[in-house]
Here is the input.
Amino acid sequence: MAAHPSEILQGAQAGAVTLPVCDHYSGVEARMRKSLQLQAEMTQEFGTCVFDVTLDCEDGAPVGGEAEHAQLVTELALAAAPSARVGVRVHPVDHPAFEADMAQIAGKAGHRLTHIMIPKVESVDDVAKAEKAIQRTSSKDLPLQVLIESPGAVQRAFDIAAHPRVQSLSFGLMDFVSAHGGAIPAEGMGIEGQFSHPLVRRAKLAIASAAHASGKVPSHCVVTEFNDADAMRAAARRAAREFGYTRMWSIHPSQIRPILEAFAPDERQIDTATDILLAAARADWAPISHGGALHDRASYRHFWQVLERAHATGRPLPAEALAWFQPSK
Here is the structure.
């Protein structure tokens, strides 16, 4: 049997985390239920799960109602379809509700979750606290996704990303801007300013670089202007192409498809990647010439990542490429 590209082309990518390109957040009961229903519908439409659903306790739980909200989130996670990809954002590790969140949610529904999101992570010590909470409450080794929301956390992003339990780093734009005491104007939180203000740009690049250095997934922040699909699509495209992000938050169902479109390779990229990898396979992965350019395993890895991204975003693949993603008989 011919070797599979994922086996041949591990190299620098070995151990790297891959996740759906969209992470959809909701914290109100009706919206959480709708998110899970939409995930099931789009999984059927695309033939693969194209976005994660993260049920939100931090912003979703009313003050004084944290325990009841954690119980609701647990019930929703347990009732989700067996193939669903569901995570939960709990309260920060220094919040009074954190331990109760973990005992309730990870303890009772950990086996159904894909990840736990920890907000306001400042250092590796915070990651260690969250890891110990998982070890105390869940029989499953749940991955942690962390939210970087302050200048200090950005400075420590490389150490945080290197922790083996961490799967993904997200950028918390609003809190990051607020942490500067007015030094960054409110426009820095907008759809244009967040890509142009030097301090915000620097933070985004540092987080993406830290994540890639440890083979983790950099997840781009929210865009609050959800009524303008074209602006949303343009922002997602910039996050992917200029800042190196491979995943992005959605806070409204209307944002999911623009994110998928922006992060997906186009038909030309898919065809080129397929042609090069098929030629490489025929050459037993030795160097080849294609279109007047030399290609070897370094570029093969890139083109395999293109096809992986295409499959993860539900893009149609040529039959020869699709065969690489079907279960072996």
User: Anything to note?
Assistant: The longest helix spans residues 29-46. The chain is about 45% helix and 15% strand. Strands lie at 22-26, 51-56, 86-89, 115-118, 144-148, 166-171, 217-220, 247-250, 288-290, 293-295.
